[in-house]
Design goal:
45% strand, mainly beta, Thiol Ester Dehydrase, Chain A, single chain, 5 strands, 102 residues
């Protein structure tokens, strides 16, 4: 929603990987990073990790969410471009472009 500067709706959730478990008492940290923007949609990678006395920043899940913003009539609003700065951001955007075109 921050990228669009307005409300968004989820249009897809894909490739959810559950790689470990969360125990009672674990502290869960969730991070979302915008990885690719087409003309009308935004792909975001969401990662979850846990921290506890025994585990430090242990990844537990990752998934890809795609969002669009709609106007009052339900029409899709164009997505702003992503400001890519690092090699990791460019690589993630390139991979997102490939998924989008597939």
């Amino acid at each position: 929603a921050k990228h669009f500067r307005r409300g968004v709706v989820t249009v897809s959730l894909s490739s959810v990987d559950l790689v470990s478990f969360v125990k009672r008492g674990d502290i869960v940290t969730i991070e979302a990073v915008a990885t690719f923007a087409s003309a009308k949609s935004l792909e975001t990678t969401v990662s979850a990790s846990v921290t506890s006395f025994k585990r430090q920043d242990c990844p537990v899940a990752q998934g890809k969410f795609t969002f669009v913003s709609v106007n009052k009539e339900g029409g899709v609003i164009p997505a702003p471009r992503l400001a890519l700065e690092t090699d990791n951001e460019f690589n993630a955007a390139f991979a997102g472009q490939k998924r989008y075109e597939a």
